[in-house]
Write a structure and sequence with these properties.
Layout lengths: L1 E3 L4 E4 L13 E13 L2 E18 L12 E18 L3 E16 L7 E2 L6 E12 L2 E10 L3 E2 L2 E5 L2 E3 L5 E3 L4 E4 L5 E2 L3 E12 L6 E9 L9 E8 L2 E8 L6 E9 L1
Antiparallel strand pairs: 1-3, 2-3, 3-4, 4-5, 5-6, 6-7, 6-8, 8-9, 9-16, 10-15, 11-14, 12-13, 16-17, 17-20, 18-19
């Protein structure tokens, strides 16, 4: 067994931080890690924590920089646990990883309340399996399962109207969505399953050809969080939640040559 001791460090960003009202970004990090290694087995577990001051990011929605600045700054915290386990045999290997984490941010005001950061994903897990079946064939499986990320829900919609030159109000064709509290909701779980197979032709002291095929997101699962948007139809409009990115199963062919 090996163990790394608790450490602490500060990181500061460069120009233009510290000038023209832009705060100097600093962060303190701490990590405790335990490892175990053997010829066919390896395990690792760690606990981590970070404290950030002067963190900055682009404000989620800005239409008038005279009302709100394009960037916002504040403080943040990150902490959690992660673990890895891997085993290797004569013809197969398996690696499994899991992360449990929390991430919080507080923006603009010194005493502002903390809210979940937009990448505050509670659970992350991944498994990778490789099987050498013989005669140059190799089979790979990658699976990943992720808990929901925070999202800003829709608080409602507003109907717009225009004042025409004749003094009458004209309804706009498109409503405006009113956001709810920032990052106060979460969508569904996400994940994907990828399969791959590879054939190796050649051998020692000879050129090696590699031919492979794979399918990404074989299960047709959601890989991105759902975001609110206004759906306008013949019966009016209403708020719906759709994934930010849609990824159908993607087949891929690969060719390699080594000499």
């Amino acid at each position: 067994w090996t163990m790394t001791s608790l450490s602490r460090r500060t990181i500061a960003s460069g120009s233009p931080a510290g000038r023209s009202g832009t705060p100097l970004s600093t962060a303190d990090h701490a990590l405790i890690e335990v490892k175990r290694s053997a010829p066919r087995f390896a395990a690792r577990a760690s606990a981590f924590a970070s404290r950030i001051r002067g963190a900055g990011e682009v404000r989620p929605s800005v239409t008038d920089t005279g009302v709100a600045a394009f960037f916002r700054f504040g403080r943040g915290r990150v902490w959690g646990l992660d673990a890895e386990l891997s085993t290797t045999g004569a013809r197969a290997s398996l690696a499994v990883a899991y992360v449990l984490s929390w991430s919080r941010r507080a923006w603009d005001e010194r005493h502002a309340a903390e809210i979940p950061w937009r990448y505050d994903r509670r659970h992350q897990s991944r498994a990778f399996f490789t099987w050498f079946t013989g005669r140059g064939w190799r089979f790979n499986v990658l699976a990943e399962l992720l808990s929901p990320e925070p999202t800003t829900p829709a608080g409602g919609t507003l109907e717009q109207a225009l004042l025409a030159p004749d003094g009458l109000h004209r309804r706009s064709r498109f409503p405006v969505m009113v956001p709810g509290p920032e990052n106060s909701a979460r969508g569904g779980w996400m994940g994907h399953l990828d399969l791959g197979i590879q054939k190796e032709i050649g051998g020692p002291e000879r050129p090696v050809w590699r031919i492979g095929a794979s399918i990404l997101n074989l299960g047709f699962t959601r890989i991105a969080p759902a975001m609110p948007e206004i759906d306008v139809g013949s019966q009016g409009w209403h708020v719906v939640y759709r994934p930010r990115i849609f990824l159908p199963p993607v087949p891929t062919l690969t060719f390699g040559f080594e000499f």
